[in-house]
Design a protein that fits this description.
With 564 residues, this protein is α/β, with parallel strands linked by helices. 47% of the residues lie in helices and 9% in strands. It contains 17 helices and 18 strands. It has helices at residues 7-28, 56-72, 78-92, 118-134, 138-152, 175-192, 195-212, 240-257, 262-275, 300-316, 321-339, 367-382, 425-434, 455-471, 506-515, 529-538, 550-560, and strands spanning 31-32, 37-38, 41-42, 54-55, 104-105, 111-113, 116-117, 165-166, 237-238, 287-288, 298-299, 351-352, 363-364, 397-400, 438-444, 478-482, 523-526, 541-544. A five-stranded parallel β-sheet has the order 16-15-14-17-18, with helices on both faces. Strands 4-5-6 form a three-stranded antiparallel β-sheet. Strands 1-2 form a two-stranded antiparallel ribbon. It starts with 6 loop residues before the first helix and ends with a helix.
Length: 564
């Protein structure tokens, strides 16, 4: 067993845990085949706890995970997604109710709790956004607009945003359903590009910035009165995990709108980092706003949100990125050591005490949503080389293999002195960019698995190559690499038929998911049949480069390509 505890190995191990352990378990034992829906919880041996009512929120979260995994290229679960969505509509959608969707059902499919719940509707909108990304159907957007009518009606809060539910459970309004409504609106905008969804997101952000934050205390209270005032509420608290979650969302909003969110981000981080992260880099569950006293427990979801905030800040500020990378590495180590150390692989411990002793009696399905997003964001920001933050814009890409296409293949090159650029490489990239394509490198790098180089070596080499090409006026938008191989000498990278390793299409699908690339308008140039097979499986037109001047070859390819 390799004892190296580098951030790269930890990311690889976490990704493996998700794809090899968690997803198969929750699609298998975690899925109720008879009802066609997911179980709420499993015990620590992986057996379902079948007697619990099934909340719509949990179904939405689990189905989002499958949709994201399918888009990412981890596994294709389109059939199960379609089947489960039909069961969700069948069991939870009630046209006879003014608010249409019920909160939960019994195990026999009957209504358990019919209430109108804003938090649940926010996750339903979030799921609809991801389903629309997988397969754009007008019905998804029509359902989203129907949900917005409910949110704008009985769930509308007096001073902006939404209340928790109708009938209202108490006199408080809470930031949590509003936060997830912002998340859903951003996901809908990213999926469908509708201006009204972005406008809704901006409206929520204005209420957050002007009313929800208690600026004098540098805290986001969990409870407010109807005017979004928290000062008079006895024993008010904040949850550091929600501070981190808002940081991630505000940075996403800034990418779409160009808004400056630095002041609010700095306010959220100032207190959450100083008293909301323990010595082991885990997020504290909650903190009293006035006294600063914290509870001695930690939750998995809070540490996942901390990882997402680290990724968001690293992406937003390249100068500070190394420090945020170090923070993320520490948090990921604790995630492995504490929360993912469950008796069965693919499960997790949801809550621990101050001494890391498990407090959870079982495993809630709802936490997989947090894990999926945290792992995806760590991969997106820390697991590729992207010299510039790409602006969200749908379009085609030119995918390039590396060794034998951009540089001479000398057999697992991992250092600058081993690189000789192919004739015309820089000009070829410039030609593609001028034609409107983004340029993305997708390269198998099994030398990492074989022990010839570290993953950090590969990424550092890509930074060097990117800089040398840019000196010649050629900009590569992103560099993706697959370090896995079935005969890997390091357990972190030993993986049979990894979904990212060409001829599998994982890297192309990952780039499409992360960069909003239209694969049908994209091209792939490689020097091996495995490159062409990967392109074919991703729905991309593949072209075999047999050597010579790459610029001349790219010009020829572009002349026969579909117009963008």
């Amino acid at each position: 067993m390799n004892s190296d505890n580098s951030f790269e190995r930890l990311r690889a191990l976490t990704s493996n845990w998700l794809s090899r352990d968690a997803l198969p378990l929750w699609i298998g034992d975690g899925f109720d085949r008879e009802l066609g829906l997911f179980h709420e919880r499993l015990d620590f041996s992986g057996r379902p706890i079948p007697s619990l009512p099934r909340r719509l929120m949990v179904q939405c979260r689990q189905l989002y995970v499958l949709t994201h995994a399918t888009l990412r290229g981890i596994r294709d679960e389109r059939a199960l997604i379609d089947r489960t969505w039909k069961q969700i509509v069948r069991h939870y959608y009630r046209p006879d109710l003014a608010h249409r969707w019920v909160f939960s059902i019994d195990t026999d499919g009957g209504v358990h709790d019919p209430k109108c719940d804003a938090y649940t509707l926010a996750f339903l909108l979030f799921l609809l956004a991801w389903l629309h990304r997988l397969e754009p159907r007008p019905t998804y957007l029509a359902l989203a607009d129907e949900i917005f009518d409910v949110l704008d009606g009985s769930l509308s809060a007096p001073a902006g945003g939404v209340v928790d539910a109708w009938p209202r459970p108490d006199a408080f309004v809470r930031q949590n359903p509003n936060m997830h409504l912002l998340e859903a609106c951003l996901a809908l905008y990213e999926s469908a590009g509708r201006p009204q969804d972005l406008s809704r997101a901006e409206a929520i952000q204005r209420v957050f910035s002007t009313r929800m934050i208690w600026r004098r205390q540098r805290a986001l209270p969990e409870q407010h009165d109807d005017e979004w005032n928290a000062e008079g509420i006895e024993a008010g608290w904040y949850e550091p995990g929600h501070h981190f979650e808002w940081v991630w969302l505000l940075r996403r909003l800034a990418r779409f709108t160009g808004k400056t969110v630095d002041q609010d981000v700095e306010l959220l981080l100032s207190r959450a980092l100083s008293e909301g992260i323990d010595a082991a880099s885990m997020a504290v569950e909650r903190v009293q706003i006035l006294s600063g006293e914290s509870v001695p427990t930690r939750r998995l979801w809070g540490t996942c949100e901390y990882l997402k905030a680290c990724a968001a800040e690293a992406e937003a500020d390249p100068v500070a990125a190394p420090a945020w990378r170090d923070r993320a590495a520490s948090a990921l180590r604790s995630l492995h050591r504490t929360f993912l150390a469950a008796p069965r692989h693919g499960l997790w411990v949801d809550r621990v005490d101050a001494s890391d002793r498990p407090l959870s009696k079982d495993v809630p399905a709802s936490s997989l949503y947090h894990l999926m997003l945290a792992i995806a964001e760590c991969e997106r920001v820390f697991g590729r080389v992207a010299p510039d933050i790409e602006s969200p814009a749908n379009g085609g890409a030119l995918f390039l293999d590396r060794d034998g296409v951009i540089n001479v293949d000398t057999g697992y090159p991992s250092r600058p002195e081993q690189i000789t650029f192919i004739e015309g490489a820089a000009q070829a990239i410039s030609e593609a960019k001028a034609a409107g394509y983004r340029v993305v490198v997708v390269t198998n790098q099994s030398g990492v698995a074989r022990g010839y180089a570290s993953e950090a070596d590969v990424m550092n080499l890509h930074r060097w190559m990117s800089a040398r090409l840019k000196e010649q006026g050629a900009t590569v938008d992103a560099w993706y690499h697959c370090p896995f191989h079935e005969r890997g000498s390091d357990e972190a990278y030993a993986y049979t038929d990894h979904f990212d390793r060409k001829p599998n299409p994982g890297m192309l699908k990952r780039a499409a998911c992360e960069m909003d690339i239209d694969l049908a308008l994209s091209l792939m140039i490689g020097d091996k049949n495995s490159d062409l097979f990967a392109a074919q499986r991703a729905g991309v037109a593949g072209h075999l480069f047999k050597g010579g001047n790459l610029a001349a070859f790219v010009k020829q390819v572009l002349r026969t390509a579909k117009p963008l």
